[in-house]
Amino acid sequence: MPSAPNSFRTGPDERGHFGIFGGRYVAETLMPLILDLEKAYNEAKADPSFQNELDYLLEHYAGRPSPLYYAKRLTEKLGGAKIYFKRDELNHTGSHKINNVLGQVLMAKRMGKTRVIAETGAGQHGVATATACALFDIPCVVFMGAVDVDRQAPNVVRMNMLGAEVRAVTAGSGRLKDAMNEALRDWVATCENTFYCIGTVAGPHPYPAMVRDFQCVIGNETRVQMMKAEGRLPDTLVACIGGGSNAMGLFHPFLDDKGVRLVGVEAGGKGVETGEHAASLTGGRPGVLHGNRTYLLQDKEGQITEAHSISAGLDYPGIGPEHSWLKETGRIEYVSATDNEALAAFQMLCKLEGIIPALEPAHALGHVIKLAPTLPKDNLLVMNLCGRGDKDVFAVAERLGMKI
Amino acid sequence: MSRIAKRFARLKADKRAGLVTYVTAGDPNLDVSYQILKGLPAAGADLIELGMPFTDPMADGPSIQLAGQRALKAGITVDATFDMVRRFRKETGDNDTPILLMGYYNLVYQRGPERFCKEAAAAGVDGFILVDLPPEEADELKPYAVAAGIDTVLLTAPTTDDERLPAVLKYSSGFVYFVSVLGITGTSSATEEAVRTHVERIKRHTDLPIGVGFGIRTPDQAAAIARHADAAVVGSAIVERVKAGLDEHGKAKADLIPGVFAYIKALADGVRGVRKA
To answer: Which domains does chain B have, with CATH numbers?
Structure first.
């Protein structure tokens, strides 16, 4: 295990590495483009007009800041930690994905790109990308696994209505990983005019750092809001992890606050012990895929194995490289919640708080249900409620045997 | 001098360009795949690229994706791929035709770059073409490849400009692989003029031979490449001949192997018909 650094917030290094993780493992055709993006992003970061435009859009278009809500009934029911929700499900388009997409589409515009592509699992990133592209009048193509097109049909319709073209990917197992392969294949052929808007803190450098930076608005707001609500920092932060963007956005601003416990919840599928899960950090090991070195689900040869999760957004055999590094440094705890635990949490939240969560944060809640009762009543716990469940109601109803 | 360097020196002496043929190891099964490998030099291949199937071949088009799936289903492994090469060297006695492994870095990384290089060299492998290991990350492999006497053939693309080329060439040995089109394998083809321009540009930076690939399907196209480059690389179109030789149950028909060799011979005739200065 690497020794703890003075700060956990200084990565990546100039080559895009977080310890041994991250990097730029891409075909040569894309390498010059990635270097261009890195340069353009560094310039944008130093340009106040870029941040001003993004801040304006986040406030007036996306509806930020999202509320920090004290979930009183849930807290009473669980009888332990004082539970707050960071309500990123209330953002325009229904999830935290819009935070990152607005930043990246501004980058696309800044770099003079005339076409945007994206991959999507649950469809939340696809919808957010389609939305921002409609706003900026840029043609948009979203790659989505054929299996996900079926199980997240409402989001496919939304993307179409917003003017995006959705390409169902049948290669491989027709899930998020395959959608990302296909997006990369498109990009290699179209890189001169096309911007690839990656939906999570993964991919080749500078994507993991750039997406993280755009998502840090979640944690930065939480810090201010908690100071206002309770006069101090939170004790415990919990977020679900597929690629890990909502968790990174919440956690990163707190990485150097040693008293704040950070818990990432992976998708345990049918149970990590069954082998049918999407818990890359718990059940995988370091490998190279999709432009970066990170924990991956793979066989002993290095062939990538299928992830399994009821949540299309967590159904990915990898994870952002910074999470892999934070796991190895021990700064963040990574646990998992099963499909059934997420479903139970989904139902509990509907009935107790009148909030229908997406299946992704339902995994985070699945862990909170176990964790909160073990914590004292003065423990301030914030869970990122990163998406709303409209897209999931039919799939959940079917799973629960409800008549529609 | 490595087998690859010797082969290009020989081609130069013969005043012609070479034909590099790509086949996927284990496609459509281990036995037929070995029979194909064994017969490639006689069919006209000057260098051989042996693809290591990967579940997520991000730089490959549908033909090579499907070939990889067939091979993985047939049980191909890294060890079985090394065995194919070892058997080729032993049974054919061919100690001159270079064999390069082509694929994605994760398979190398999982075995450990040092061990992978040693085992590959011991089996009779001459070079690696790793699609997703650009110069930015090549340091983690290069020292072990050098120690094992394995050439590293890096890709250059139309997007690799004059400023960037030296970085790519720094890690290149054996030859330089120019990817002639923006895109994945087996899709579009570059114009002869574009290939000529890029090859001349790369030649200004290096004395290494230049192989050109992506989108070459016909003997005429192979000949056009041979006029400007030191070798023409054909992959997807060969792999499609393998697929065409399968029946509806995926079993190899009797004419699969002869069909593949006849096609390669036609490509080789195209390449060999071009006399070089």
So the answer is: 3-272 (3.20.20.70)
